[in-house]
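Long-time lurker, first post. I've been practising inverse folding by hand and with some scripts of my own, and I keep getting stuck on stretches where the structure tokens seem ambiguous. Below is the full token string for one chain I'm working on. Before anyone asks, I'm not after the true native sequence, just a reasonable design that respects the backbone. If someone could post their per-position residues I'd love to compare against what I wrote down in my notebook.
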């Protein structure tokens, strides 16, 4: 039997090796709140989609290592096209981005020429390239409110975020693309109600990618940053039911070490307590080892056609200038 040796030696101290490579390549590590705790702990900046897009636009590092999913790294590349943007696992996708294939989306936009196209950043660069405005869950209401009320809007790809924005703005003239997040769509209302009944004092924190029947139980609806802020401003000894991807609880625990955090169960989770049941399978593809490997080999890197970058930049910059 022939034993195959790995072509690279495996560092015993991954964290130190990552720090060394970071310095060598003048790199910055950006991590989304849904990343594994050990990745969040290595990051220079942790944030929601909007905070990370701003960091990507402002950094003076030569290399951006984006610990998140593909559309987030693409957004960083669009904002900093001359930098190297690395994604530890190129397969880290997003069901929302997949739900709006570029050719179908373009045809939909062309069929509604009188509509302003507002696109959630959870979309591909090609979809952003045929959009007027981008939004994140942090600023979607603000961006939509900046568009004259009589102007019809085509909102894509998340039907639930779109529904929430419609509710918040009172705007009826929003046509919604029927995409959804495979993580936020599958929380169980019955099990959530059972959990609320068991913990009557708990604050219920819900991401707006959840459907309305889940959102109606919320004390706070907001982006991952908004939910974290609710913990920071809430009772330090309180109980919080977290209805979003559980990676965010790592930062919530640091913000309120004495508080109790309960994960809301999904329709596929076992009844009773739930631990890491509703993880995003894409976010969780990145590991510390892949982070080290991508810094070591400077790949996988994001590459985009210059014309896509040029066209997709405009709706993102409009968004950043509004909120
Ligand atoms: P946030 O912008 O709220 O962090 O959301 C990103 C995301 O992918 C939620 O599923
Ligand atoms: Fe996409 Fe949902 Fe995962 Fe966020 S949680 S990256 S919206 S699949």
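-- Answer (accepted) --
I ran through it position by position. Result:
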């Amino acid at each position: 039997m022939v034993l195959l040796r790995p072509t690279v030696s495996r560092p015993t101290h991954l964290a130190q090796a990552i720090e060394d490579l970071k310095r060598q390549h003048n790199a910055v590590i950006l991590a989304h709140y849904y990343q594994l705790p050990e990745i969040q702990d290595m990051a220079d900046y942790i944030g929601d989609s909007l905070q990370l897009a701003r960091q990507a636009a402002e950094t003076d590092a030569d290399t951006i290592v984006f610990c998140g999913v593909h559309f987030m790294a693409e957004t960083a590349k669009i904002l900093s096209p001359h930098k190297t943007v690395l994604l530890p696992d190129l397969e880290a996708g997003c069901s929302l981005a997949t739900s709006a294939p570029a050719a179908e989306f373009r045809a939909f936009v062309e069929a509604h020429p009188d509509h302003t196209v507002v696109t959630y950043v959870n979309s591909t660069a090609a979809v952003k390239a045929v959009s007027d405005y981008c939004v994140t869950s942090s600023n979607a209401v603000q961006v939509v409110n900046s568009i004259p009320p009589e102007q019809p809007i085509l909102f894509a790809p998340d039907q639930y975020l779109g529904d929430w924005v419609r509710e918040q703005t009172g705007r009826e003239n929003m046509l919604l693309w029927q995409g959804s997040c495979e993580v936020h769509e599958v929380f169980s209302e019955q099990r959530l109600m059972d959990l609320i009944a068991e913990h009557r004092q708990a604050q219920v924190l819900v991401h707006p990618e959840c459907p309305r029947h889940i959102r109606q139980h919320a004390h706070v609806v907001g982006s991952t940053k908004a939910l974290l802020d609710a913990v920071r401003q809430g009772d330090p000894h309180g109980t919080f039911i977290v209805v979003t991807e559980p990676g965010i609880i790592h930062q919530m625990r640091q913000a309120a070490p004495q508080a109790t955090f309960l994960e809301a169960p999904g329709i596929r989770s076992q009844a009773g307590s739930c631990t890491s049941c509703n993880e995003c399978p894409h976010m969780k593809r990145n590991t510390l080892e892949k982070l080290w490997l991508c810094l070591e080999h400077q790949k996988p890197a994001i590459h985009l056609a210059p014309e896509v970058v040029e066209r997709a930049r405009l709706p993102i910059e409009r968004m950043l200038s509004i909120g």
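A couple of notes from the structure itself: Residues 33, 48-49, 122, 136-137, 181, 209, 223-224 surround 1,3-dihydroxyacetonephosphate (ligand 1) (CB under 6 Å). The chain has a mean pLDDT of 95. Happy to go over any region you disagree with.
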